[in-house]
Structures are given as structure tokens and as C-alpha cells.
Design a protein that fits this description.
This protein has 358 residues and is an alpha/beta fold. The termini are far apart. The model has no long low-confidence stretch (mean pLDDT 93).
Length: 358
């Protein structure tokens, strides 16, 4: 078992993150023990309910089953969950428990942060993407017609339970989408300012076959490395006012891919991998890195055989990137590599981008 913790000193929002491979039924007992003598609502992914519902054994009246897919992270479902909580007469002393991937975690966290102005929130991530990234750090959100995650809050969970056993039944595409975010951490590691040297790029290169074979011990170590990096960033910058922006490496162009394809053609991880390739190209053209580092990065990416993403018209992509949350009134912000496992933020005017990339 790995027992980590997030310590956000400014407001004493400290919470544990438990990484442990154990029986799903045992895990259920553990997170329900946190709601002892309290009422609780479990928001669970439909796929997870189908596979693990019997083992989790959550009473029907305490459960909201959310269909799978990014499109479910919407106002309509937010309202349905709130109404369910109100009918259950949840109070400020009660809890919301999220069991699923990033979509379930994001909408559940948003419900928890806004219901009665905030009630306890417990995260049980079941996808690799949620384990290594979205379950830690307190970002909550729902999507709108104008873009992804444009309505949300920063709201830290009470505890996060990570069990690599869930990853055994994850479909290949969703497993790979999580690997997209994992690879991202290898390219930003030094900028995360973690006291421990974790050498994620080497780990990804040397253990690629064990990772792809979903060896439980290897996955547990991989999750631990990524979570340590995420904790290091979140503790220093909870609300993305500075350092936390580095976690958006690959996301400016990646989010535009998701938007242009209406979130239907590519997964988040597939889009982010393409966004990272775009960032490496841009960094070479701006003379921030040499081509050798770009080739090394591409070699790491190739080991994981990610889905290829088609090219889109640059002018249209620039238009969409201007709607990104990180964009300012005139410029688009990119997190770009500047050295081995090191990144920084750069502003580009649309015309400058066109000139550089054409």
C-alpha cells in the first residue's frame, strides 16, 4: 500500500491518497466507513456499475448511475444529481462519492462543491486517466456548448482511493487515453519541482511492455510516480495561478481537437498526445529545443502506439484555441518544452502562429 497526502497549506485542505491493490468489495467497505452515521450519494459510471455493481453492493436508493462519455458532463445531469440529493435530504454533514473515470469525478465534484455550498467528496477513480490525473487536485467542472470545463470550481476531495485492480477491465482505448496523460508527466517532470527524482521518462521507456500488459505492480508504481508529480504541483499552486499551468502541456491544441470533432472522434488522451506533438513542433520552430530532444520524445510516444489523429486546418484550430480558458484577449497560451522534462508558458498572437507553422 502507498499512502500519500496532499497538503495545501494556505487553507489547510489536507487529504490522503491511498494507492492499494485489493478486492473491490474490501475497497467498498473502506470508503463507506468514511460515511459512517452520514447519508451519502454514490455517483457511479454505468460501465463500472455493470462490472463491479455486485461487489460494491451499494443500495439502489444511494446510487445515481451516470452514462459514460464526455457528453454526459452537462447541466442536465448536474441538475438531475442535485435533485436526487435534495430528495434524499442530504445535508452539509453528508457526502458525495464518485466511482468512475474523469467524467464522473468532474461532475460529482462540481455537485459536491455547490450543493449546500459544499459537502464532503470522496474520489474512487476507476480509469488510468482519473487515477494519475483528474482525481487529484480538486478541479471540478461541467461542459457547455462553448467548450469543455468552462463551468467549474476548485474543490478538494476528503480522500482518494486508488485501486489498480479496476484497470484490468478497462477497455484498451480508455487505458491508452490514460497513458497519454502519463506520457505528459514525463515531459514536464522537472518543472513539477518534486523533491524526489522520479525519472518517469526512463521508467516509461524501460517498462513499456509491463505497462502495456497491465502488470499490477508496475501500474501501481506508475500511478504513484504521476500522483507524486501532481501533488507537488497542486500543493504549490492550487488554483492554477502560476505553476499549475504546466499540467496543460499538450492541452491547448488537444482541447481544440476535441472541440472540432464534437468530443466524438478522439478520446481526451489521444487529443493530448497530438497536442504534445504540436507543442514539440512549435518549440523546435521557435528554437526553444533542438530536434534531438523532439526525436527522443517521439520515441517515447511511439512505444505506446497511440491512435493517429488527422490534421485539421490551422486557421480553424487557431480560432478554437482562442476560446481556450488559458487564452487572453489577444493571444493563445501554450505550454512548450524548453529542455529535457522541462516546460514553460508562452503567449502567441494568431498571426505569429500562422507565420511560424506555415
Amino acid at each position: 500500500m502507498v499512502d500519500l497526502s496532499v497538503k495545501i497549506k494556505q487553507n489547510e485542505k489536507n487529504y490522503p491518497i491511498i494507492i492499494k491493490t485489493e478486492k473491490i468489495a474490501d475497497l467498498a467497505e473502506k470508503f463507506l466507513s468514511f460515511t459512517k452515521d452520514k447519508n451519502y450519494l454514490v455517483i457511479i459510471s454505468k460501465k463500472v456499475e455493470k462490472i463491479y455493481g455486485k461487489q460494491l453492493n451499494i443500495p439502489k436508493e444511494n446510487k445515481f448511475i451516470l452514462k459514460d462519455g464526455e457528453k454526459e458532463k452537462n447541466f442536465n445531469n448536474y441538475q438531475k444529481i442535485i435533485q436526487k440529493a435534495l430528495k434524499m435530504k442530504l445535508t452539509r454533514n453528508d457526502a458525495i462519492i464518485a466511482i468512475g473515470g474523469g467524467v464522473v469525478g468532474d461532475i460529482s465534484g462540481f455537485v459536491a462543491s455547490t450543493y449546500m455550498r459544499g459537502i464532503d467528496f470522496i474520489q474512487v477513480p476507476t480509469t488510468l486517466l482519473a487515477c494519475v490525473d483528474s482525481s487529484v487536485g480538486g478541479k471540478t467542472a461541467i461542459d457547455t456548448n462553448f467548450g469543455k470545463n468552462l463551468v467549474g470550481t476548485f474543490y478538494q476531495p476528503k480522500i482518494v482511493f486508488i485501486n489498480p485492480k479496476f484497470l484490468k477491465t478497462l477497455d484498451e482505448r480508455q487505458f491508452k487515453t490514460g497513458l497519454g496523460e502519463v506520457v505528459k508527466y514525463s515531459f514536464i517532470e522537472k518543472s513539477c519541482k518534486c523533491e524526489e527524482e522520479l525519472n518517469l521518462t526512463n521508467f516509461l521507456s524501460e517498462k513499456s511492455q509491463d505497462i502495456l500488459n497491465r502488470d499490477e505492480r508496475t501500474l501501481s508504481k506508475l500511478i504513484e510516480i504521476c500522483v507524486k508529480l501532481k501533488i507537488s504541483v497542486v500543493e504549490k499552486d492550487e488554483k492554477e495561478s502560476g505553476l499549475r499551468r504546466i499540467l496543460n502541456f499538450g492541452h491547448t491544441y488537444g482541447h481544440a481537437i476535441e472541440k472540432i470533432t464534437k468530443y466524438k472522434k478522439y478520446t481526451h488522451g489521444e487529443a493530448i498526445v497530438e497536442g504534445m506533438k504540436f507543442a514539440f513542433d512549435l518549440a523546435v520552430k521557435k528554437n526553444l529545443i533542438d530536434k534531438n530532444y523532439k526525436f527522443l520524445a517521439e520515441d517515447v510516444i511511439k512505444k505506446y502506439n497511440f491512435t493517429k489523429v488527422k490534421k485539421f486546418k490551422l486557421t480553424k484550430m487557431i480560432e478554437l484555441m482562442q476560446l481556450d480558458k488559458k487564452a487572453t484577449s489577444n493571444s493563445i497560451v501554450f505550454i512548450l518544452p524548453t529542455d529535457y522534462s522541462t516546460v514553460d508558458a508562452f503567449d502567441f498572437l494568431p498571426e505569429e502562429l500562422i507565420k511560424l507553422l506555415n
